[in-house]
């Protein structure tokens, strides 16, 4: 039985996972699971600004380099995550910058990191989570937006393209899959961001759809999702699911019930996603339930304290119904 990467390859797609590179170095179990299932890796946090630049102007690429070496040694692809975001900013960065400072600091960071990994990273999440339906003009009022308005987005992509002309450059966003209350605004704003980059001739190659799914929370409308995917593809962009997991925090305690509901939702979303020819692959935000970030935060963990069953492998590395639903979605694509 091939791993998920083998199932994905049958329809010319990739399957990958986020990893914390210290785990790979120290953890033979995780290393075995990654090599069995994945064809692409992305650092869960090792290439983020707060980890790379612990002090102003200095960069410690050790963690990301360790992951890049592992990927190269095992002929796995590597994604970079993420260059410009409102979170994971180093504590020494001021909370407010004027336009000139923001542009200089942001472009210097993008240049330093994208140049360092040029030739090793196939694609970058250049800008992450810029949309906020309640924010100014539908954008999150981040450090960057407050200093530069919407212009920070094309500026970030242009800086990344200068530093690494070969990498595929993605805009990465969440809550684009199911019908959350502000779904239409989120999708429209995402399309507007991508359309502007295209119109201004700024290099952009794809949309990252995070797919942090929440079982039992929002309705899922396959037709609406398919039409959104087609609209992105019509901009001559690729589509990648970049961070899939399925929170089961709202479901009753029964593991069998949780596994079945989680698998059904993921199967539905992936079936729609993989119907789109420009869909290039699926990345999960971890492989086994041992690793999921969903247990880390009070806002995301289950109220009964049970560990979530959000990823394809259980805590012992066994394949769950979610794994089967993913394999079937790839096979049917
Ligand atoms: O900061 C320390 C670092 O100094 C230390 O070396 C390392 C090892 O102990 O731990 C680091 O701690 C935490 C790190 O995760 C590892 O657990 C950080 O404090 C913590 O903020 C970080 O949280 C990550 C979060 O992004 C912020 O970077 C989560 O693991 C990660 O799952 C989450 O991922 C985000 C995506 O980037 C964007 N989309 C949403 C997704 C979930 O929030």
From TrEMBL:
Record-annotated GH10 domain positions: 1-329
GO biological process: xylan catabolic process
Alphabetized Pfam families for the sequence: Glyco_hydro_10
Enzyme Commission numbers on file: 3.2.1.8
Protein's UniProt keywords contain Transport: no
Gene3D superfamilies in alphabetical order: Glycosidases
SUPFAM superfamilies reported for this sequence: (Trans)glycosidases (SSF51445)
Recorded GO MF terms: endo-1,4-beta-xylanase activity
InterPro entries in the record: GH, GH10, GH10_dom
Reaction(s) catalysed (UniProt annotation): Endohydrolysis of (1->4)-beta-D-xylosidic linkages in xylans
Keyword Signal: yes
Keyword terms of this UniProt record: Carbohydrate metabolism, Glycosidase, Hydrolase, Polysaccharide degradation, Signal, Xylan degradation
Family recorded in the similarity comment: Belongs to the glycosyl hydrolase 10 (cellulase F) family.
Name recorded for this polypeptide: Beta-xylanase
């Amino acid at each position: 039985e091939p791993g998920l990467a083998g199932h994905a390859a049958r329809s010319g797609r990739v399957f990958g996972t986020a990893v914390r590179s210290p785990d790979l170095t120290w953890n033979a179990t995780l290393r075995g699971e990654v090599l069995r299932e994945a064809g692409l890796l992305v650092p869960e946090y090792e290439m983020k600004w707060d980890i790379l630049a612990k002090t102003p102007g200095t960069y410690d690429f050790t963690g990301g380099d360790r992951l890049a070496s592992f990927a190269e040694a095992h002929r796995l692809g590597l994604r970079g995550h993420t260059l410009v975001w409102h979170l994971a900013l180093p504590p020494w960065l001021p909370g407010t910058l004027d336009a000139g400072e923001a542009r200089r600091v942001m472009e210097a960071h993008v240049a330093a990191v994208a140049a360092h990994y040029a030739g090793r990273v196939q694609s970058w999440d250049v800008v992450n989570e810029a949309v906020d339906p309640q924010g100014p003009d539908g954008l999150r009022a981040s450090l960057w937006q407050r200093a530069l308005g919407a212009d920070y987005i094309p500026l970030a992509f242009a800086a990344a393209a200068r530093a690494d002309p070969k990498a595929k450059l993605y805009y990465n966003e969440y809550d684009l899959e199911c019908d959350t209350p502000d779904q239409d605004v989120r999708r429209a704003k995402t399309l507007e961001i991508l359309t502007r980059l295209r119109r201004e001739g700024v290099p952009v190659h794809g949309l990252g759809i995070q797919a942090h799914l929440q079982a039992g929370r929002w309705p899922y409308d396959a037709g609406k999702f398919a039409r959104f995917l087609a609209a992105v593809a019509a901009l001559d962009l690729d589509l990648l699911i970049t961070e899939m997991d399925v929170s089961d925090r709202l479901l009753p305690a029964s593991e069998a019930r949780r596994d079945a509901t989680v698998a059904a939702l993921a199967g539905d979303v992936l079936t729609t996603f993989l119907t789109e020819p420009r869909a290039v692959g699926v990345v999960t935000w971890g492989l086994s339930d041992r690793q999921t970030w969903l247990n880390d935060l009070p806002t995301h963990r289950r109220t009964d304290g049970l560990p979530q069953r959000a990823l394809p492998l259980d805590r012992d590395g066994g394949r769950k119904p979610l794994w089967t639903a993913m394999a079937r979605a790839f096979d049917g694509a």
